[in-house]
């Protein structure tokens, strides 16, 4: 049977059934019978919230309960961490282990934390049993990797570093003030009355205008304006 033949037979079968509602069908509000919303039945067993893990506490297990193991969380790089969680059930998720690591390091979230088992990353949704196996016993070691981790600075250390930097800046300013040269020799009008000053001015003007006559005339104008009203030299 070809696809075309099958499609024709299928459409003919549908045509023999009751008429379907059109895409723009609207129920009559006068004859419409409203029905209550469908509610899902209750679960036979209520789900219990898993307790949060803590490095200093261990869950107590009674004989006959699910087996538990000790989890060792170690990191050889920064940050250096060696955390042991004893009495952990095999149903504990990897995300809960990350929360314990975040509390140990003082991190706000677990986005930067990675757990490795036999150098392979572990997904947050998996449990310890799914990663290491159901028959695991004793102690299981996980590697810890924190991406972009920086050690938190204490307020006292930050304040001491700020004071030290301010002290260095202050001492540097004192040294600069002490090393600043002090003006020596004549100053003010005494300098203007010396021939060396006018010679230096003439030399500077000569470099700018490149004409000795113009430079001498300009110096003469300056001298005449300076000594006018001050008397002869």
Give the class from helix and strand content and strand pairing. Answer: alpha+beta
Rough outline: elongated
Number of DSSP helical runs: 7
Low-pLDDT stretches: 57-61
- Secondary-structure element sequence? HEEHEEHEHHHH
- Biggest beta-sheet profile: 5 strands, mixed
How many DSSP E strands?
Answer: 5
Rounded radius of gyration (Å) = 45 Å
Mean pLDDT: 75
Helix content: 25-40%
Strand content: 5-15%
Straight-line distance between termini: 129 Å
Short summary:
A hairpin with a 5-residue loop joins strand 1 and strand 2 (81-89).
Record the SSE blueprint.
Layout: H1 3-15, E1 68-75, E2 81-89, H2 94-105, E3 113-117, E4 120-121, H3 128-132, E5 139-146, H4 155-179, H5 189-192, H6 195-209, H7 212-227
Parallel strand pairs: 1-5
Antiparallel strand pairs: 1-2, 3-4, 3-5
Detailed description of the structure:
The relative contact order is 0.08. This protein has a five-stranded mixed β-sheet with strand order 2-1-5-3-4. With 233 residues, it is of the alpha+beta class. The longest helix has 25 residues. The chain is 39% helix and 14% strand. Helix 6 crosses helix 7.
């Amino acid at each position: 049977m070809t696809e075309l033949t099958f499609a024709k037979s299928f459409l003919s079968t549908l045509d023999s059934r009751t008429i379907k509602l059109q895409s723009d069908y609207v129920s009559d509000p006068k004859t419409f019978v409203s029905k209550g919303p469908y509610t899902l039945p209750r679960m036979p067993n209520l789900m219990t919230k898993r307790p949060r893990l803590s490095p200093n506490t261990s869950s107590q297990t009674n004989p006959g309960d699910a087996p538990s193991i000790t989890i060792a969380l170690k990191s050889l790089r920064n940050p250096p961490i060696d955390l042991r969680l004893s009495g952990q059930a095999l149903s504990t998720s990897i995300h809960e282990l990350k929360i314990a690591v975040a509390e140990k390091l003082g991190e706000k979230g677990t986005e930067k934390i990675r757990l490795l088992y036999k150098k392979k990353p572990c997904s947050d949704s998996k449990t310890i049993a799914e990663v290491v196996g159901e028959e695991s016993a004793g102690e299981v070691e996980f590697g810890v990797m924190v991406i972009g981790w920086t050690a938190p600075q204490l307020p006292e250390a930050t304040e001491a570093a700020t004071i030290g930097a301010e002290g260095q800046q202050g001492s540097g300013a004192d040294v600069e003030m002490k090393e600043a040269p002090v003006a020596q020799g004549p100053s003010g009008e005494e300098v203007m009355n010396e021939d060396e000053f006018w010679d230096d001015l003439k030399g500077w003007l000569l470099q700018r205008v490149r004409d000795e006559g113009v430079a001498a005339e300009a110096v003469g104008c300056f001298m005449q304006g300076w000594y006018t009203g001050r008397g002869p030299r």
